[in-house]
Design goal:
This protein has 85 residues and is of the alpha+beta class. 31% of the residues lie in helices and 29% in strands.
Length: 85
């Protein structure tokens, strides 16, 4: 994650999960860039959260819109929270 910053936190619905490879592909597609990364954070018994990271070049509004569309198309219930501006 060199020179990358976390820009969103994703939570999927109860009982849902997303694999790292699928999430990485969706996030790269949404950002139209391979300069991305994702991670999963476990906090006690709560469902995991997923960090979405980007490099220097990033169009937040377009990427967010595309990511929301990709998640909805796959039937996820989710929240996508901004973490950096």
């Amino acid at each position: 994650m060199k020179n990358q910053r976390q820009v969103f936190v994703l939570h999927v619905g109860t009982g849902q999960s997303i694999g790292p490879d699928d999430l990485r592909v969706m996030w790269a597609t949404a950002c139209e860039s391979l300069d991305i990364s994702v991670n999963r954070k476990l906090t006690g018994s709560r469902p995991p959260s997923y960090g979405l990271w980007v490099g220097e070049r990033f169009d937040r509004k377009s990427a967010e819109t595309r990511m929301r569309g990709l998640l909805m198309a796959r039937g996820y219930r989710f929240t996508l929270t901004n973490t950096a501006f």
